[in-house]
């Protein structure tokens, strides 16, 4: 058993996906802007940086629908750092297109960056020293449990012009031994190129993580409960999913009809064969979480209620109406995680939506903090998301990646009662809704508060990251370069100090409190801020 336990203390942080960082190649990456952002967090008293899933995206560009639950996104690789390492030449960047600085244009970005990664691989083949080959081979061996399947999956997908794996030749769909051996021989160089890209991603990510750790900034990752059907995970492990003999799903994921949707939500992800996973000791899930914790310090576990019970919809249905509830793995699954990672699991339970008593019990039995989103708090004074209803063991958010930024939410409210309740609750006019929610989150008794970067900067609907239900046009917001010198950072730092969420405010408690010394310490912190 390894102990990855995460110790919570009173702290705050910011949600910003790396793709939203400024940078020269049309998308945020792991280059200088990422290190500058860590500096910004540290300088303004923030000890947490929350991100979205880091996997390689596919159709729709969603980080929640990736080609692998283990691999990193090649689009995050810094081309500038590849020049510094010698795997690209300065002149390789001379033809850089003029990219949009406000939105990620995924099509042109993919063509540009994947072309450069192929150049880097060619230069590596030509000039790499034996020690560098050995480093890549060590990485390959250490990650062989997922990397070999991912690399051949991607090579086969390229060979098939991007077709989903269920449309490949039948022997490859079934992973017959002779077909797989022939594919490894035929595509050896292509397979190795995908290993190279993952090695480069890992090197750059670990350098950023080490820098963040040295600055006192811990990384909060995001683990979607479900994986994409067209992924190396499902192709390589069909027995762990509810699939028919031809490899296609029998049932898919979604949520039932509710107040927000008369037909529910049909996500389409394949569902797990939990009995098979249980019989195998949940090894695939344990390795998935272990790989995630190699990259981050704490993990938001998406759609937590699915571990208590999930909505199963026949794969032939067009809506989620005709689904049924089925039991999830429950406590048995989390006990297996505790055996692997220690009693204090480094997890945040994403327990939003309709949460039943069995979900609450599962969360509380394992001591997992749940989520409280302030934009959802205004139905009445008994709403559990209002600050006076918070418990210390929860994580408060101003909003999430699925919400409008607070200014957009406030501007487009059609219910006057919501506005009136916010005004009554805060006992004053709401001139800056974003700062109203940021202050409420900071003052909460919850041990952790996470603001969205859009709320810190006071941006509106134009900066929304995702609109659920829309398959296109999401995930493309980019933060302006001027954000890191914006005065909002100092304002955030002041609130962080005021509500004692700065790491250097975690003071030892003496047996006989010296209140004069306590007052002097806080005066010093206020002067520094």
Commentary on this structure:
The chain is an alpha/beta fold. An 8-stranded parallel beta sheet has the order 9-6-3-2-1-12-11-10. A 4-stranded antiparallel beta sheet has the order 5-4-7-8, with no helix packed on it. Helix 1 links the parallel strand 1 and strand 2. It is globular. It starts with 10 loop residues before the first strand and ends with a helix.
Secondary-structure blueprint:
Blueprint: E1 11-15, H1 32-43, E2 48-50, H2 79-85, H3 106-127, H4 130-142, H5 144-159, H6 170-173, H7 177-186, H8 188-214, E3 218-223, H9 232-236, E4 251-255, E5 265-270, H10 274-279, H11 283-293, E6 298-301, E7 309-314, E8 324-327, H12 330-341, E9 347-349, H13 357-365, E10 370-373, E11 394-397, H14 406-411, H15 416-426, H16 433-443, E12 448-452, H17 453-457, H18 488-498, H19 515-528
Parallel strand pairs: 1-2, 1-12, 2-3, 3-6, 6-9, 10-11, 11-12
Antiparallel strand pairs: 4-5, 4-7, 7-8
Helix pairs in contact: 4-5, 5-8
What is the strand content? Answer: 5-15%
**CA radius of gyration:** 24 Å
Structural class: alpha/beta
Major pleated sheet? 8 strands, parallel
Q: What is the subunit arrangement here?
A: single chain
Helix content: 40-55%
Shape annotation: globular
Low-confidence stretches: 507-519
Please give the alpha-carbon distance between the first and last residues: 42 Å
* Count of strand segments: 12
**Continuous helix count:** 19
* Adjacency order of strands in the biggest sheet: 9-6-3-2-1-12-11-10
Average of per-residue pLDDT values: 94
């Amino acid at each position: 058993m390894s102990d990855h336990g995460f110790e919570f203390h009173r702290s705050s942080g910011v949600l910003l996906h790396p793709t939203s960082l400024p940078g020269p190649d049309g998308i945020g990456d792991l280059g200088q802007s990422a290190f500058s952002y860590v500096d910004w967090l540290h300088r303004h008293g923030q000890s947490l940086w929350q991100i979205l899933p880091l996997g390689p995206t596919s159709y729709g560009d969603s980080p929640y629908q990736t080609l692998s639950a283990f691999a990193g996104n090649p689009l995050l690789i810094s081309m500038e750092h590849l020049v510094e390492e010698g795997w690209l030449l300065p002149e390789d960047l001379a033809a850089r297109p003029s990219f949009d600085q406000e939105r990620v244009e995924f099509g042109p970005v993919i063509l540009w960056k994947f072309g450069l990664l192929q150049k880097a691989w060619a230069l590596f083949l030509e000039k790499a020293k034996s020690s560098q080959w050995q480093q890549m081979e060590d990485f390959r061996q250490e990650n062989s449990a997922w990397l070999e399947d991912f690399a051949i999956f991607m090579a086969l997908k390229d060979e098939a012009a991007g077709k989903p794996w269920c449309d490949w030749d039948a022997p490859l769909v079934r992973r017959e031994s002779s077909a797989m051996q022939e594919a490894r021989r035929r595509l050896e160089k292509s397979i190795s190129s995908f290993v190279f890209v993952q090695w480069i991603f890992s090197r750059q990510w670990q350098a950023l993580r080490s820098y963040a750790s040295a600055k006192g900034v811990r990384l909060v990752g995001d683990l979607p409960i479900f994986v994409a059907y067209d992924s190396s995970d499902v192709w390589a492990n069909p027995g762990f999913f509810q699939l028919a003999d031809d490899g296609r799903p029998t049932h898919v994921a979604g949520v039932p009809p509710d107040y927000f949707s008369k037909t529910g939500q049909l996500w389409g992800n394949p569902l797990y064969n939990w009995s098979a996973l249980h019989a195998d000791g949940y090894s695939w899930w344990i390795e998935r979480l272990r790989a995630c914790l190699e990259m981050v310090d704490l993990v938001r576990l998406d759609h937590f209620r699915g571990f208590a019970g999930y909505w199963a919809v026949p794969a032939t249905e067009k809506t989620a109406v005709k689904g049924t509830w089925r039991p999830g793995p429950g406590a048995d699954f989390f006990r297996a995680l505790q055996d692997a990672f220690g009693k204090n699991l480094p997890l945040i339970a994403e327990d939003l939506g309709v949460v039943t008593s069995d979900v609450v019990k599962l969360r509380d039995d394992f001591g997992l903090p749940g989520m409280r989103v302030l934009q959802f708090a205004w139905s009445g004074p008994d709403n559990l998301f209002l600050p006076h209803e918070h418990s210390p063991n929860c994580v408060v958010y101003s909003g999430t990646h699925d919400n409008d930024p607070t200014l957009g939410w406030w501007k487009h409210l059609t219910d006057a009662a919501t506005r009136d309740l916010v005004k009554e609750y805060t006992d004053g006019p709401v001139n800056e809704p974003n700062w109203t929610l940021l202050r409420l989150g900071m003052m909460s008794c919850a041990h952790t508060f996470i603001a969205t970067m859009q709320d810190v900067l006071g941006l509106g609907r134009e900066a929304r990251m995702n609109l659920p239900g829309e398959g296109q046009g999401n995930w493309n917001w980019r933060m302006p370069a001027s954000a890191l010198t914006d005065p909002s950072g100092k304002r955030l730092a002041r609130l962080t100090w005021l509500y004692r969420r700065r790491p250097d405010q975690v003071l030892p408690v003496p047996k006989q409190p010296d209140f004069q010394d306590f007052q002097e310490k806080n005066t010093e912190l206020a002067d520094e801020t």
